[in-house]
Amino acid sequence: MSIWECIELLNEFVDESDPDLDEPQIEHLLQTAEAIRKDYPEEDWLHLTGLIHDLGKVLLHPSFGQLPQWAVVGDTFPVGCAFDECNVHHKVAKGNKTSLPLAGLFIIRYHSFYPLHKHGAYQYLMNEEDKENLKWLHVFNKYDLYSKSKVRIDVEKVKPYYLSLIEKLNLGGLSLRQDDTATSFTQPPRPTTASEDEHLVSKIHAILDAVADRAEMHAIIGAQRNDWNHLFTNSINAISLTASLMAGISSIPVGEAAPHMLAFKLSSVILFTAATGMMLITSKIQPSQLAEEQRNATRLWEQLGRSIETTLALRAPTQRDVDEAMEKVLALDKAYPLPLLPGMLEKFPEIVEPTRWWPKIQPKQSPQAGGNGWSHELEGEMRGILRVLKAKDEQQYTTLGKLLLNMNKTLAISGPLLAGLAAISSGLIGSPALGPMPAFLGVIGGVLATAVHTLEHGGQVGMVFELFRNCAGYYRRLQEEIASNLGETDVQKRENGELFEMKVALQLGRSLSDLKGLASYASPLCEDEDIKEFAGKLF
Are the C-beta atoms of residues 34 and 158 closer than 8 Å to each other? Predict the structure, then answer.
């Protein structure tokens, strides 16, 4: 008999020891669970605990022994020690490796132990873990005692949600029998034939060849665009400084007949005009940013290639492996296009968003018996990491990206503007009405244009902006990977919890013990302003 069938079985009973409710027990279970769900929406284990906390009352049914109510319901009290004056007259789930946390098992076992949680008796029998679990029992009792209502719960509406929690917390494969034992089983996957394996291997090798080719092309183009940045920076600076020198020479008075001064003047105008045009082009395409895009693309293509090679080394590929590899190839092609025009990424976007180079993430299934390495503690740890990544790490690099973008916009406008001003001023050198002002503006404008251009492209501000976007994307992808696993209600369909925890630790540059320290940030009582540390330690 399944868990939900046992819950429905409680429709036949009313707890005679409960003076507050004369409705069937299933109504009390659902009212308790729904009240908790409303106030603690993130604590899904607590929702399920509320649903099953009185499931032991099935012992009242003939299928489970038809025990009298006095032997099943009522208060709990200890034996083997003196009774406290406040006294009034779970083991199946734990034995079958449920993912329900210890606090949930504690609540199920002791929620009717009123001398303990209401009057504080027998606390000398408790250890530190019991004291921590007692805090959750106090939270739970507000709903167990005061959620009773005449308003009926729509069972069919809420049933799918609680069925999903039963599966998620490893109670889905649990079958209760009259002898109080339990069995669980998993459906083995359909094996593939030899011909199917060979066909899938051929497909994955074709994708691997394309990935290797893409990595090589991006590496070549990245080196080329890095050379562009150095060539343009040095050439434009040389042209601007030469033009400034010629503008200064053309303004020096050497007598009435000085035809060579006209040549210097015209040359400075031509060179300043050329520098202005080249600055406009480089400000538009941002060669240093182009080079960084290709460097990151090369790294990601090589990473994808290694991932596929690892899959081939560990096991035969599946159709899902092929489909995921194809999706990743297309996502990378879209994120980092090879051609310069058309298709070049916008260098001055209106909104700064983390770079995205991955398709929708699906949990990597690890078909194993038991809890698949997941526990409530690990889920809390991952929720804490998820919150810190979003509130601190991604936010930091997005904010820095906005700052660098605004700086780069200012430099990209200022450089050509100063060079253009210098070109116009050089053309007016020698005008009696303007005196020495054109020469002054020509020389100073050229020098300032050179300084601004050096800061923008020699300092590779565009490259740093792209780097910040990529860092934000790195943390965004990790968030989606964690959220994807937590969002999968069937624990067996998630990636193995222990392996996933290790991968997250490596990607954040932390030890496994460090990760556990981030679990406290998952609490709804913790505000974003209370988060003082960053999840990532690599950068």
Answer: yes
Rounded distance between C-alpha atoms, residue 319 and residue 409, angstroms: 47
Beta pairing class for 182-183 and 175-176: antiparallel
Cis peptide before 342 (omega within 30 of 0): yes
Say if residues 213 and 334 touch (Cβ distance below 8 Å).
no
CB neighbours of 463 closer than 8 A, spacing ≥ 6? 288, 289, 291, 292
Statement: residue 118 has pLDDT above 60: yes
- CA 219 to centroid of chain Cα atoms: 28
Position 366 scores a pLDDT of 56
pLDDT (0 to 100) of residue 185:
35
Binding residues for Fe cation: 28, 53-54, 111, 144
Q: Across the strands, what pairs with 175?
A: 183
Query: Do 397 and 471 touch, CB atoms closer than 8 A?
Result: yes
Q: What does DSSP assign to residue 133?
A: H
Residue 60 backbone dihedrals phi, psi, to 5 degrees: -75, -20
Quote the pTM value: 0.62
Counting Cα atoms < 13 Å in the Cβ hemisphere of 411 gives 23
Regarding predicted confidence, which is higher, 433 or 410?
410
β-pair partners for 183: 175
**What's the token pair of residue 387?**
């919150």
Query: Bridge-partner residues for 412, per DSSP?
Result: none
Question: Which tokens sit at 25?
Answer: 């027990």
| CA separation for the pair 493, 168 (Å, rounded) | 10
Taking phi first (over 0 means left), then psi (-120 to 50 degrees means alpha), and beta for anything else, what does residue 210 get?
A: alpha
End-to-end CA distance of the chain: 53
CB atoms within 10 A of CB 96: 17
SS3 helix, strand, coil % of the chain, rounded to 5? 65, 0, 35
d(CA 102, CA 49): 11
C-alpha angle with apex 422: 419 to 424, nearest 5 degrees?
A: 115
CA nearest to 419, candidates 438, 439, 445, 444: 445
Question: Do residues 92 and 176 make contact, with C-beta atoms less than 8 angstroms apart?
Answer: yes
pLDDT band at 182 (very low <50, low <70, confident <90, very high): very low
Residues making up the binding site: 28, 53-54, 111, 144
What CA–CA distance (Å, rounded) separates 232 from 262? Answer: 28
Q: Minimal CA–CA distance to 492: which of 406, 377, 371?
A: 371
Opening angle at CA 147, ends 144 and 150, nearest 5: 130
Torsion sign over Cα 194, 199, 205, 207: negative
SS3 532: coil
Can you count the helices (H) and strands (E) in the chain? Answer: 18, 2
pLDDT at 250 over 80: yes
How far is residue 60's CA from residue 288's CA, in Å, rounded to a whole number? 76
DSSP of 186-211: -PPPPPPPHHHHHHHHHHHHHHHHHH
- Among residues 140, 208, 157, 176, the alpha carbon closest in space to that of 57 is found at 176
> Would you mind telling me the total number of residues written for the chain in this entry?
539
Comparing CA positions, the residue from 400, 148, 419 lying closest to residue 283 is 419
